[in-house]
Structures are given as structure tokens and as C-alpha cells.
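Hi R.,

As promised on Friday, here is the backbone we talked about, encoded as C-alpha cells. Could you run it through your design pipeline when you get a chance and send me back a sequence?
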């Protein structure tokens, strides 16, 4: 995305164990960068850039960021600075709590009158959201902002492609284990994205402290994409027109988040390789629940796209610069 960005010149590209090798050995599709040699990830190598993107394993960003100048924009794709509450961090991560930064989800509605993008202009430290929290929070936030659902009866099941787990070797992620099979993980409140989603829904509901969530991730045999199916109990008297109005108020003017036309449902295929979010809902009158389905590409809107969009806002560029607004088909 940065290669296609009109305001960006790429500087140092750094790595861990791969330092010293060529970009083309790891990412052959990045042909213009094929012969660039990856450097060590040190404050010295990163110095002198206007913006630095970190995409390190959790817990490794804080020390590096602290060694970078305060006027340099640092965008962290890891979880290190996403959570405001130290107890939430220590419950799910095993490194010391490092604090929280401005949260890089511009379209998150904060009540009915503000968006998270208002908090990103001019920022120099930004935490990129997790991929599941992106799909789930953008799907549910308008309902919380407009007070249409009960806060304490939210159930989410979401499927992710395997690239969500990174490229490291993991026993359950061998091709032969994943292909032709779907499986749950982190069941029973065990996934570290649960507090991040709750934090976002609380922000949407302007600080409500009674939000609770049952979240179950599942691994799907596809390279990329997340499909989140979210349900919540609607408040008395809430009808489909009120729900549609809430989504239209939240996303009517957005470039990347789309409430689909009636009868059309999100799929991961329709957002692959784009920064788009596809959302649709149905009111299930028999159960008194609204069902919201949302789809994102975990590697675009779910990480790198959100990082570039956040940079654009922080540095005053066109918010959509360099970002693919539509995906590829078939
Ligand atoms: N994949 C996804 O869908 C999403 C990922 N994220 C976050 O983005 C970050 C990167 O994710 P992803 O690319 O999938 O993870 P990977 O595990 O695929 O890559 C992590 C990279 O970090 C490098 N690295 C590890 N330790 C160091 C170090 N000490 N110094 C410098 N580089 C190091 C490794 O480089 P080398 O190979 O050279 O050792 C490796 O390429 C993570 O924080 C992840 O949580 C966020 C949202 C979605
Ligand atoms: C399929 C898969 O394993 N997905 C990852 C989520 C990746 C991501 O967005 O999250 P972080 O940035 O918080 O790592 C997981 O469940 O841990």
C-alpha cells in the first residue's frame, strides 16, 4: 500500500531473524522492493524517518517506541498500546503493561456525535486495532451508540483466515490440519480480543460500564478474511427501521464502511485486498435479537490498511490515500 501512496517514500525496511536477506526472498510479489536488503530493527536504523510502522510480536513494541523521537509518528500494529485498562492487559498478555495510545479505528462511532477519527489528527503514537475487534466493533458500535440493544447480552462468533495467525510455525496451523476443516479456539472467554471489543462498545455507548460479551473465534480454511456474526438482544420497541437509521447515521458518509443493500450479505470474498468493511443486519423477531454480520480483510482493514489510514489522518493526508477501496473478484 505504501508503494502506491502518493505522499510516502519508503525508507528503511527492517526485520528480526530475516535481517540481512532481500525482501524478494520473503515477499516475491513486492517486485519494486525485491532487492532491498532488510536491516536490523534498531532505534538507530529507524531514526530519521517521519513515520515508523511496527508489526512485532506482542510485548516488543514498547521498548523500541520509547527510543524513537516524540515527533516521529509511530503506528503500532501489535496489541501493546490498545487497552486502556491495565487489568485487561494483564489478564490476557504476559508482558508488563505499557500504557495506551490513540486507537486507530477512525470510523468507530463515539456516541452519536463524534467519531474516533477526531482523536487521530496530529497524533504521533497510534495503536492499530486487532483484526477481530475491527470486524466486530464496526458491526455493533452504531447499535450501542444509539442505545438500541441491551449491553449485557452480546454474542459473537467470528471466523478468520489463517494469515491472522501470522507466518510462524504453529502445530494446529499446518496446511493439512487447516484445509477442509473449521475449528474454534479461545472458547469460553479466552481470547485476548474480548476486552478490546468491550472497550470499543463502551466507547460507542459513551462510557457505559455494563457491556459484556461472549466471543468465540474460529479458524477457517482460507488465507485471509474475517466474517463476524454478532447478535444482541434489542431493547423494547426497537424495530428494523431504527437499526437501519443507526447504521446509516454512522456510516452514510464513510468511504470504507458499507451497510449493504437489503437482501445482500457480507462475505470475506467481497472485501479481500481492500480496506472495506461490509455490514448487514436482520432483526430476528422470534428471539428478540438483532443479527449483524460484518466482513473485513484481516490484513487490510484489519491491520495494514488501518495503519495507513491512521497515518493519513495523523499527518494530514487524504484519509483514503494509498488505500484500496474495493477488492478483487472473483
Ligand atoms: N496477521 C494479522 O491478521 C494481524 C496481525 N496484527 C499484528 O501485527 C503484528 C505482526 O503480525 P504478523 O505479520 O501476522 O506476524 P508474523 O509473526 O507473521 O510476523 C512477525 C514479524 O516480526 C518480526 N520480528 C519478530 N521479532 C522481532 C524483533 N525482535 N525485531 C524485529 N522484528 C521482529 C519477524 O521477523 P523475522 O521473520 O525477520 O524474524 C516477523 O516477520 C503482530 O503484532 C500482530 O498481532 C494485527 C492485526 C491483524
Ligand atoms: C487466526 C488467528 O490466529 N488470529 C489471531 C488474531 C490476529 C490479530 O488481529 O490480532 P492481533 O493483532 O491482536 O494479534 C488470533 O486469534 O490470535
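Update: got your reply. Pasting your designed sequence below so it's all in one thread:
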Amino acid at each position: 500500500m505504501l508503494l502506491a501512496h502518493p505522499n510516502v517514500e519508503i525508507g528503511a525496511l527492517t526485520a528480526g531473524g530475516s535481517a540481512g536477506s532481500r525482501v524478494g526472498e520473503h515477499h516475491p510479489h513486492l517486485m519494486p522492493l525485491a532487492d532491498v536488503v532488510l536491516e536490523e530493527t534498531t532505534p538507530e536504523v529507524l531514526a530519521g524517518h517521519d513515520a515508523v510502522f511496527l508489526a512485532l510480536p506482542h510485548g516488543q513494541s514498547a521498548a523500541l517506541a520509547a527510543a524513537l523521537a516524540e515527533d516521529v509518528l509511530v503506528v503500532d500494529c501489535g496489541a501493546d498500546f490498545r487497552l486502556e485498562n491495565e487489568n485487561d492487559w494483564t489478564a490476557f498478555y504476559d508482558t508488563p503493561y505499557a500504557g495506551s495510545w490513540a486507537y486507530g479505528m477512525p470510523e468507530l462511532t463515539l456516541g452519536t456525535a463524534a467519531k474516533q477519527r477526531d482523536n487521530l489528527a496530529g497524533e504521533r503514537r497510534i495503536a492499530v486495532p486487532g483484526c477481530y475487534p475491527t470486524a466486530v466493533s464496526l458491526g455493533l458500535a452504531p447499535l450501542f451508540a444509539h442505545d438500541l440493544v441491551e449491553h449485557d447480552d452480546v454474542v459473537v462468533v467470528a471466523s478468520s483466515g489463517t494469515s491472522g495467525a501470522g507466518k510462524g510455525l504453529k502445530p494446529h496451523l499446518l496446511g493439512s490440519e487447516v484445509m477442509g476443516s473449521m475449528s474454534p479456539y479461545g472458547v469460553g472467554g479466552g481470547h485476548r480480543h474480548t476486552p478490546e471489543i468491550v472497550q470499543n462498545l463502551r466507547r460507542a455507548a459513551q462510557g457505559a460500564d455494563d457491556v459484556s460479551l461472549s466471543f468465540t473465534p474460529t479458524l477457517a480454511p482460507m488465507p485471509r478474511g474475517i466474517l463476524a456474526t454478532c447478535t444482541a438482544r434489542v431493547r423494547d420497541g426497537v424495530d428494523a427501521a431504527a437499526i437501519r437509521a443507526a447504521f446509516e447515521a454512522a456510516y452514510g458518509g464513510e468511504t470504507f464502511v458499507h451497510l449493504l443493500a437489503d437482501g445482500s450479505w457480507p462475505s470475506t470474498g467481497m472485501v479481500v485486498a481492500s480496506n472495506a468493511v461490509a455490514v448487514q443486519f436482520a432483526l430476528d423477531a422470534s428471539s428478540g435479537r438483532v443479527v449483524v454480520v460484518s466482513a473485513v480483510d484481516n490484513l487490510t482493514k484489519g491491520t495494514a490498511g488501518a495503519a495507513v489510514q491512521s497515518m493519513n489522518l495523523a499527518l494530514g493526508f487524504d484519509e483514503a490515500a494509498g488505500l484500496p477501496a474495493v477488492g478483487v473478484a472473483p
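One thing I noticed while checking it: Residues 15-18, 41, 55-58, 60, 77-79, 130-131, 163-164, 166-168, 298-299, 302-303 surround NDP (ligand 1) (CB under 6 Å).

Thanks again,
M.
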